[in-house]
Amino acid sequence: MGRCLRVRPWIVWATGVLAYMVAVFDRTTLGVSGLAAAERFTAGPTLLSMFVVLQVVVYAAAQVPAGLLLDRYGSRALIVCGAALMASGQLVLAFTDSLPVAVAGRAVVGLGDAFTFISVLRLVPHWFAPRQIPVVTQLTGIVGQLGQVLSAVPFLALLSAQGWSVAYASAAAGGVLLIVVVLLLVRDTPQGSAATPETMSVRQTLASVKTVWLRPGTRLGFFTHMGTQFSITVFALMWGLPYLTVAQGLSPGVAGALLSLSVVTGIGSGVLIGVVTGRYPHRRSWIVLGIIASNALMWTIVLALSGPAPLWVLVVLVAVISVGGPGSMVGFDFARTFNTGATLGTAQGMVNMGGFLASLLLMQAMGMVMDASGGLTFESFRTAWTLQYAVWTLAILGVLITRRKARRQLAEDDRFLLEDIQT
What is the residue-wise DSSP string for 259-301? Predict the structure, then answer.
């Protein structure tokens, strides 16, 4: 009996991570099939980027509502809803030749994706001891990224061999299977449901959202997520494969292998980040700033070259920016530190908006820059990637400002706690 109790948290967590893996897979299928999508829907760079941007717009816009629903109904219900929405969206994509219909289907995928990640993260504090939470949170993010490998390798192979409809219909079937597994194995807490039956008025809901946002730790998490996550997200979700093949001259196989390397790097660095942030929680913001600086430095080296980079430089680039994925998970740790369990879902949704808002703006802006520069060429990609520096600047300023406020809040909380003990 004791052994079952020890194993049960890992079964629940593994099922949740499987759901997130499917979400990442569904999120990145269009990125690896971008050239096929351009041919199927007769779309240029701007239209193609809008195709993905709408998905990310929906994802980002749904984060706070998803967080509120998560606080009310619990993880299990939202994971199932998310999987159903993503499967429906992929099924629409499988059989339509219409660009507007396909865009709508992709928006549905984005909505389902929005429900999934924060719902899986919400399971962790309920099933694991506080000392385990930072490492398990990191593992959630990095293991879930294996979904990117599924899209870059087997999905791309199926797309090449069997065509668009079979590949996307297979993705939809995987979502249906996931629903069954989640219903069988996932529970919100060891006691069962974590749903809160209390209802709030619109005014109370807005007041709660405002309160969560005004906590400096929430905003610190938001800017952390923004500065670390956007570069690898834009690379993996939209422009990485075209950049590597068209601008850098790599074969699709080598480019796909580099995207897979991104996941491997994320796994290794994520475990290390989880251990270090768990052991030195007061140094988390310095780790974040170091990751942002390394991303900017590596891109500067690549963009400074007048021609295609050597393969080993591209390997280093992908490895370095991939650390941003697990680095963004530190933002959720900030949200957990500065928010109560009753509002944790809302706070995590706000944090998750940071990187995706930056990503969607950059994806669209890059498409517009490349259209204005003559299409997908080495020089147009080179110019478009320089837009990243504006995001890094904003994120660094945000981290520095909110970090100071968060430290002040912690100091005040400690002072009040000491006064209560003395009283």
Answer: HHHHHHHHHHHHHHHHHHHHH-GGGHHHHHHHHHHHHHHHHHH
Report the alpha-carbon angle 12-323-224, nearest 5: 85
Domain extents for the chain? 2-190+200-422
Q: Kindly tell me the number of DSSP H helices and DSSP E strands found in the chain.
A: 20, 0
CA distance 258 to 183: 35
At 13, the amino acid letter reads: W
Residue with token string 């060891």 = 190
- Count Cβ atoms within 10 A of the Cβ of residue 94 and give its class: 0-12 exposed, 13-18 middle, 19 or more buried: buried
| Terminal alpha carbon distance of the chain | 44
Quick one: CA dihedral 184, 187, 356, 233, positive or negative? negative
DSSP 3-state assignment of 189? strand
> 3-state DSSP call for residue 192?
strand
Contact in structure between 402 and 223 (CB atoms under 8 Å): yes
pLDDT digits (tens, 9 = 90+) for 157-204: 888 888 888 989 999 999 999 999 999 999 988 876 655 555 666 676
Q: What CA–CA distances, in Å, run from 286 to 189, 290, 417?
A: 33, 6, 27
Average pLDDT over residues 37-59: 74
Q: Helix H segments across 128-251?
A: 133-144, 146-150, 156-162, 164-185, 202-214, 216-234, 240-242
| R_g (Cα) of the chain, nearest Å | 21
User: How far apart are alpha carbons 349 and 351 in whole angstroms?
Assistant: 5
Q: What's the CA gap between 66 and 202, in Å, rounded?
A: 15
What is the rounded average pLDDT for all residues in the chain? 84
Residue 251 is given by DSSP the state: -
Angle formed by the axes of helices 324-338 and 133-144, to 10°? 140
* pLDDT range class, residue 363, cuts 50, 70, 90: confident
Q: Which CATH superfamily is domain 2-190+200-422 in?
A: MFS general substrate transporter like domains (1.20.1250.20)
| pLDDT band per the 50, 70, 90 thresholds, residue 421 | very low
Scan for tokens 């087997």, then name that residue: 154
